Amino acid sequence: MKSPHSGLKRVIHAAGYSWKGFKSTWKHEAAFRQEIVLFSLMSPFVFWLGDTAAERVILIAVLLIVLVVEILNSAVESIVDRIGEGYHELSGRAKDQGSAAVFLSFFMAILVWGGFLISKLVG
């Protein structure tokens, strides 16, 4: 369904829907809450690890990617659960694929942060 709003009014409504998404993900997804805590704990180290603004942006961006992927994974899980609680091979596959995406985003963040850390300690 197309939004009845346009221009600035559409942007304001979209921001409200996004805020609802953040709140519901926080409320219903323990993994998202844990990742927010991890993000909060790691963010201050950006100023130690990153020497330039670009490096700091990269370090923050990879942490944000984990959160984005977790929200998308949660959306997939919500849709699958709405369809039915019973097991279906495709539903299981969708949930596993979402989980794999979260895992890869974590792996990417670890690689980037690890690379910066090694560079900082060795260099």
TrEMBL record:
It catalyses: a 1,2-diacyl-sn-glycerol + ATP = a 1,2-diacyl-sn-glycero-3-phosphate + ADP + H(+). The keyword ATP-binding applies. Its main location: membrane. One of its GO terms (molecular function) is kinase activity. The chain crosses the membrane at residues 56-80, 101-122. It is a multi-pass membrane protein. Its EC number is 2.7.1.107. Catalyzes the ATP-dependent phosphorylation of sn-l,2-diacylglycerol (DAG) to phosphatidic acid. Involved in the recycling of diacylglycerol produced as a by-product during membrane-derived oligosaccharide (MDO) biosynthesis. This is Diacylglycerol kinase.
